[in-house]
């Protein structure tokens, strides 16, 4: 039971890579109607008369069902047995984690309300929107822009296959932005409907915790047996002279015009993805990183490979350069001054230098919710904070900041609280992708992590020209890699950089999560002709790493299609 839960906070030392959009995970019914009118938001939770009959029915049904949970919750979170609470659960923030926790809790019979800030494409202290970062300012709009930007590469590829254009294809930025924003409006409406249809009460406004069982939303008080904080995070731009001229990822997804020349500061997955987007949309792209390589935390070979492929597509990567100032010239153009010099003539400077949890002015200090020095909420393995009735899921806890992980945490919490099934999120073998160009997919351990953990590992790699590139004539290549435990033959890690890497790795992630061995991979018949078949046809290790030595075996270049 929850009283005996350990108070350790799981933390992840590796950088958090990325991944799949939300559509499939939430099984979003795409035919659902568009946004609700504001009359669907409840202004006074205490008077059920303000609810529609449908809601009243749902709520009384929920209360009937939740009586059993109430008794259970009393002893464990300091709630008073005889006290009436407006809700079993009040969720602050309707992003991936909050929506999942609320919806599942309601499905399990709890009475639930969720508050969320009004919609805007740009987040602030006062704006957000149902659906959260992933849907409105992250995974979804980003992937739509990745699709848009891929075409230029495909146009180039097509020439080798006989396509001729009388004129160079032109891109209309405003069409892209208008269509993208219409889709975001549709999605935020869908999220409201998902919650509403589950019987969750929607409250529009900024939530703040007043006491362990009370949330204030813009002056109105709501009491709840449990509170879940799922407020996510926002981009962070370091203070340097001229930082007011910089844009963040929110703004970069919603620019009024295409950047002609853009500096992207940062080497994480968001920086690398935006570099690909703007490069594909024919901007002149410069990436500035403090370190020697992009994508800290990813497999070293993949890091090198993707940087090389990005450079071949025309992205200039400035390594070991820290920004010191942004200077605006009389003609409006921007210069970026770094420790190594100044690069001039940018139309935009984007900072992709990390995100900070939205925990300021949330009332956490008042009620005694413990936070890390970065402002992330500390939780135990069940997502419980230092205050027994308050829980936190998703990016605000800074565990593994990915949408599917926030969903997992939200779902696990609902089970723990309302299904009498204490459930810890399982962070083993979480697959992820970077939608760079070419994209990366990965699951399990990097070579470096595997050596550290297991000592003796066998590495299988294939670095080859994909079939498409034989005729397109472009310098595209694919890198695929298996990290295998020498002792058990288990596949510990699987990495790919090349076309369709994210789709490919999602499938193989099941095998890695299931703990399958290299022999299982070898026993699987490939699908021909694909790049993915390489994962089941790598026979000879590229190198065998033993605690004391490294034996390199040159397995040569892959024969086309494994023939
Ligand atoms: C550019 C970008 C690209 C990304 N790409 C991917 C990707 O490809 N794959 C992937 O898995 N992940 C991706 N992510 C990460 C992913 O978006 C997050 O991990 C995920 O959205 C976290 O969900 P969450 O519920 O914790 O928080 P969020 O989705 O951020 O939701 C928090 C919500 O709380 C609201 N809120 C904040 N404060 C309050 C308050 N006081 N009262 C009421 N509401 C409040 C906010 O408005 C927001 O809607 C990306 C992120 C970014 C920024």
UniProtKB/TrEMBL annotation:
<dbReference type="InterPro" id="IPR036188">
    <property type="entry name" value="FAD/NAD-bd_sf"/>
</dbReference>
<dbReference type="GO" id="GO:0050660">
    <property type="term" value="F:flavin adenine dinucleotide binding"/>
</dbReference>
<dbReference type="GO" id="GO:0034599">
    <property type="term" value="P:cellular response to oxidative stress"/>
</dbReference>
<comment type="similarity">
    <text>Belongs to the class-I pyridine nucleotide-disulfide oxidoreductase family.</text>
</comment>
<keyword id="KW-1015">Disulfide bond</keyword>
<keyword id="KW-0521">NADP</keyword>
<dbReference type="InterPro" id="IPR016156">
    <property type="entry name" value="FAD/NAD-linked_Rdtase_dimer_sf"/>
</dbReference>
<dbReference type="GO" id="GO:0050661">
    <property type="term" value="F:NADP binding"/>
</dbReference>
<dbReference type="InterPro" id="IPR023753">
    <property type="entry name" value="FAD/NAD-binding_dom"/>
</dbReference>
<dbReference type="GO" id="GO:0005829">
    <property type="term" value="C:cytosol"/>
</dbReference>
<dbReference type="GO" id="GO:0045454">
    <property type="term" value="P:cell redox homeostasis"/>
</dbReference>
<keyword id="KW-0274">FAD</keyword>
<comment type="subunit">
    <text>Homodimer.</text>
</comment>
<dbReference type="GO" id="GO:0005739">
    <property type="term" value="C:mitochondrion"/>
</dbReference>
<dbReference type="InterPro" id="IPR004099">
    <property type="entry name" value="Pyr_nucl-diS_OxRdtase_dimer"/>
</dbReference>
<dbReference type="InterPro" id="IPR046952">
    <property type="entry name" value="GSHR/TRXR-like"/>
</dbReference>
<dbReference type="Pfam" id="PF07992">
    <property type="entry name" value="Pyr_redox_2"/>
</dbReference>
<comment type="function">
    <text>Catalyzes the reduction of glutathione disulfide (GSSG) to reduced glutathione (GSH).</text>
</comment>
<dbReference type="InterPro" id="IPR012999">
    <property type="entry name" value="Pyr_OxRdtase_I_AS"/>
</dbReference>
<feature type="domain" description="Pyridine nucleotide-disulphide oxidoreductase dimerisation">
    <location>
        <begin position="430"/>
        <end position="538"/>
    </location>
</feature>
<dbReference type="InterPro" id="IPR001864">
    <property type="entry name" value="Trypnth_redctse"/>
</dbReference>
<protein>
    <recommendedName>
        <fullName>Glutathione reductase</fullName>
        <ecNumber>1.8.1.7</ecNumber>
    </recommendedName>
</protein>
<dbReference type="Pfam" id="PF02852">
    <property type="entry name" value="Pyr_redox_dim"/>
</dbReference>
<dbReference type="InterPro" id="IPR006324">
    <property type="entry name" value="GSHR"/>
</dbReference>
<feature type="domain" description="FAD/NAD(P)-binding">
    <location>
        <begin position="88"/>
        <end position="410"/>
    </location>
</feature>
<keyword id="KW-0676">Redox-active center</keyword>
<dbReference type="GO" id="GO:0006749">
    <property type="term" value="P:glutathione metabolic process"/>
</dbReference>
<keyword id="KW-0285">Flavoprotein</keyword>
<dbReference type="GO" id="GO:0004362">
    <property type="term" value="F:glutathione-disulfide reductase (NADPH) activity"/>
</dbReference>
<keyword id="KW-0560">Oxidoreductase</keyword>
């Amino acid at each position: 039971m929850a009283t005996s839960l350990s108070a350790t906070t799981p933390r992840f030392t590796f950088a958090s890579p990325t991944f799949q959009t939300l559509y499939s995970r939430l099984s979003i019914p795409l035919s659902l109607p568009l946004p609700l009118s504001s009359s669907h938001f409840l202004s006074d939770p205490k008077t059920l008369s303000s609810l529609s009959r449908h809601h009243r029915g749902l709520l009384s049904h929920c209360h009937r069902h939740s009586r059993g949970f109430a008794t259970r919750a009393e002893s464990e979170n300091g709630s008073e047995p005889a006290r009436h609470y407006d809700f079993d659960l009040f969720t602050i923030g309707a992003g991936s984690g909050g929506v999942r926790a609320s919806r599942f809790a309601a499905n399990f019979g709890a009475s639930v309300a969720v508050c969320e800030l009004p919609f805007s494409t740009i987040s602030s202290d006062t704006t957000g929107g149902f659906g959260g970062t992933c849907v409105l300012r992250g995974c979804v709009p980003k992937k739509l822009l990745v699709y848009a930007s891929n075409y230029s590469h495909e146009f180039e590829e097509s020439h080798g296959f006989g396509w001729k254009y009388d004129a160079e294809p032109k891109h209309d930025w405003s069409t892209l932005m208008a269509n993208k924003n219409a889709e975001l409006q549709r999605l935020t409406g869908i999220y409201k409907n998902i919650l509403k249809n589950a019987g969750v009460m929607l409250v529009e406004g900024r939530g703040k915790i007043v006491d362990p069982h009370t949330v204030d939303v813009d002056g109105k008080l709501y009491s709840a047996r449990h509170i879940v904080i799922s407020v996510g995070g926002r981009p962070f731009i370091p203070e340097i002279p001229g930082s007011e001229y910089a844009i963040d990822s929110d703004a970069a997804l919603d620019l009024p015009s295409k950047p002609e020349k853009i500096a992207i500061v940062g080497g994480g997955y968001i920086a690398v993805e935006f570099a690909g987007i703007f490069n594909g949309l024919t901007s002149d792209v410069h990436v500035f990183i403090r370190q020697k390589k992009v994508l800290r935390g990813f497999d070293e070979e993949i890091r090198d490979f993707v940087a090389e492929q990005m450079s071949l597509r025309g992205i200039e990567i400035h390594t070991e350069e820290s920004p010191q100032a942004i200077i605006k010239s009389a003609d409006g153009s921007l210069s970026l001054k770094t420790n190594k010099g100044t690069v001039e003539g940018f139309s935009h400077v984007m900072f992709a230098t990390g995100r900070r949890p939205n925990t300021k002015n949330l009332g956490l200090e008042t009620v005694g919710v413990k936070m890390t020095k970065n402002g992330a909420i500390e939780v135990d393995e069940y997502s419980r904070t230092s205050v027994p009735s308050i829980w936190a899921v998703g990016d605000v806890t800074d565990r593994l900041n990915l949408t599917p992980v926030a969903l997992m945490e939200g779902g696990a919490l609902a089970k723990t609280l309302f299904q009498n099934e204490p459930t810890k999120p399982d962070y083993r073998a979480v697959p992820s992708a970077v939608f760079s160009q070419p994209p990366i997919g990965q699951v399990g351990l990097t070579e470096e992590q595997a050596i550290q953990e297991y000592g003796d590992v066998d590495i299988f790699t294939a670095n080859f020209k994909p079939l498409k590139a034989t005729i397109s004539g472009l310098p595209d290549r694919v890198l695929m890699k298996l990290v295998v435990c020498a002792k058990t033959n288990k596949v510990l890690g699987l990495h790919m950089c090349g076309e369709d890497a994210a789709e490919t790795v999602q499938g193989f992630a099941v095998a890695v999560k299931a703990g399958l061995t290299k022999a299982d991979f070898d026993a699987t018949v490939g699908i021909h002709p694909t790049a993915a078949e390489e994962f089941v046809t790598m026979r000879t290790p590229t190198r065998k790493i033993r605690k004391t030595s490294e034996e390199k075996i040159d397995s040569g270049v892959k024969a086309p299609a494994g023939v």
